[in-house]
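User: two proteins, same treatment. go.

Assistant:
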Amino acid sequence: MQHEVTAAQQLLSKKGTIVEEGWARRPLWKYDRKEIKASALKIKEWDYYAVMSHEHTFCLTATIADLG
């Protein structure tokens, strides 16, 4: 079962790890690239969007990525 995140929060802890894994119905995570504990060349960032019809007759997805 997938976990739904319902409260606004920081994406990363002070150690650079994800605070709470899951999905949300709207953007809830506060993201600061400076909190990532890795070389800039190793940082991979992307936004994934999915839109589905209520009848499940179609699905539209898009991924926007920066692979370093």
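Protein 2:
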Amino acid sequence: MTHARSYVVALTGGIASGKSAVSRRFEALGVQVYDADVAAREVIARGSDGLQAVVAHFGGEVLAADGTLDRAAMRRRVFGDDEARRALEAIIHPRVRAWMHEHALADRGPYCLLAIPLLAENLAHYGWVDRVLVVDASEALQLDRLMRRDDIDEALARRMIERQASRAERLALAHDVIENHGDEAELDAAVTRLHESYLQLAARAR
């Protein structure tokens, strides 16, 4: 008997909106969360074809002594160089998408979550997801959290926010929205409510 694939919910949100706090709550309910940031590290791990492709393009100086990617060297290499950054993204992003797809297809739960920070910017590549959940926070709250989290000034925090898709663009994709104002009990309740909803949707989809 073929396995009916898990129902797939893509979780996204702006920087410092609270995606990790939401992910952790779903994980506590036994839901598998596949994270694009984790995938980005995995696909260029030591010995991977992704790392071979990075070295083929950028040269051996981006490798650390232990054969892993020297992230600091790589950051210096692409910092302020749009062409180099695009070349690196062209190697990493398709592999991340393939990694996410493989893990979602192999998942055995009723549903799984894909944590994809830049979903709005890459939506065309994720046409196979069933539903989109957006974690939303006001820009003022994002700014405050980001400045405290990364210990940066407001100007830099604003630039980081502006580099992403706008709140309106993200909300336009959403089937579901969690308003994250920082109230833990509200967040718990919102996740519990959506968990029940996703279990029902997953059951109907089988």
